[in-house]
Amino acid sequence: MRELRKDPVVGRWIILSSDRRLRPSDFSEPDPEAANGGPDSCPFCPGHEAHTPPEILAYRDGGAPNGPGWTTRVFPNKFPALRVEETLERSGEGLYDRMTGVGAHEVIVESPEHDRDLSELEVPQIERVLLAYRERILDLQRDTRLQYVLVFKNAGRRAGASLEHGHSQLIATPIVPRVVTEELEASRAHFRAKERCVFCDMIDHERRDGRRIVLESDRFLAIEPFAPRYPFETWILPRRHRAGYETAEPEDYAAFASILKETLGRIRRALDRPHYNYVLHTAPWGGDEGDSYHWHLEIMPKRTPAAGFEWGSGFHINPTAPEEAAEYLRGIRS
Question: For the segment 75-99, what is each residue's pLDDT rounded down to a tens digit?
Answer without folding.
Answer: 999 999 999 988 899 999 999 999 9
